[in-house]
Write a structure and sequence with these properties.
416 residues; 10 strands; six-stranded mixed barrel; single chain; elongated; alpha+beta
Amino acid sequence: MFYPLEFFIGLRYTRAKRRNHFISFISVISILGIAIGVATLITVLSVMNGFEKELRERILGMVSHATISPVDDGIPDWEKLIEQAKQNPLVIGAAPYIEGEGLMKSGSSVHGVSIRGVLPEYETTVSEVGEKMVEGDLRGLEPGKYGIVLGRELAMLMGVGVGDAVILITPQANVTPVGVLPRMRRFTVVGIFEVGMEIYDRALALLHMQDAAALMRVGDAGVSGVRLKLSDMMQAREVAAELAETLEGHYWISDWTRQHVNFFKAVEMEKHVMFVILTLILTVAVFNIVSTLVMVVTDKQSDIAILRTLGLSPAGVMKIFIIQGVVIGFVGAFCGVVFGALLALNAEQIVAFLEQIFHVKFLSPDVYYISKLPSDLHWSDVGVVGLVSFVLSVLATLYPAWRAAKIQPAEALRYE
């Protein structure tokens, strides 16, 4: 097979010879440095993707993909609104709710809570709270029985369990002969849930919607809104726009991308910052190519001079060392991509194995709410990391190659 002269010589310079073992050793170190940098970058990005996906799923397991809220107070005919919303093929679940704030009291313990009135048969179609029950059942919320379902941490703070009583106090006032007093009602704990998010496990209380309406004196028309679940949550913004055009009446329609935009923007920014930081570390490894090629140029001055006297142009000399650097960068990037992808795909099993060997727990569920290391490999990230490492490798070859092209044959052969 025919190879161009520059390609042949460039590949030959990457192989060890008797007098330049040290240069070949530096080449191997350069390859390993690039491979480790690429693998680390891919693994870290995959783990961050995994954490983002885990948080998104846990948040969206309790909140809706989209929410229909009234412009005025209450939605008197929410059943009709649900029927209209479900005409959109992407809407697979809908549930009304009443929302409010209050204080919960049990003995000497008092804690602020977010109150959500729900219909259990509807709620299970839009959230995973029914699947996250650790005690009791969501169906224990029956109208007129004044039952309540609490988050696990909230129940621990209040020191209550299933069957115990708590008192809910709301800002709505009662006028009595002794003055204006806040409304309060005794509720019985019928269930405890745990979703693994402090914002819900510590501060959310679920009531039957009829009991919530009676407690907050909003009546049957006081529904705060309708929560929707979509078959594809990534199309939430498009569905919200379509519903805004098709629903009869005046409603405010929001989706999860707007409700939690600051949180997900912060996660995305953290991912971008981590990518930049690790790319800088990768750049340090790529600079080994510069030192390797500079050493090769110094060692091969006489060879370069002979090639120049035989008619090889300065551009040809540059190609020789660019090819050598590109080969080092390509091999390093390829090995890093393969190793990083394998590591990211098996991160959970690897961490579990290390925990078993060293008898440690890297992710304590009491601290992180996540007991396993999540990893979500995006092949687009793999492609970007591999491309960036290869481009950096090519750029690192330019100065040594330019320096080699500037060697004058007469000066290089003067003392040979």
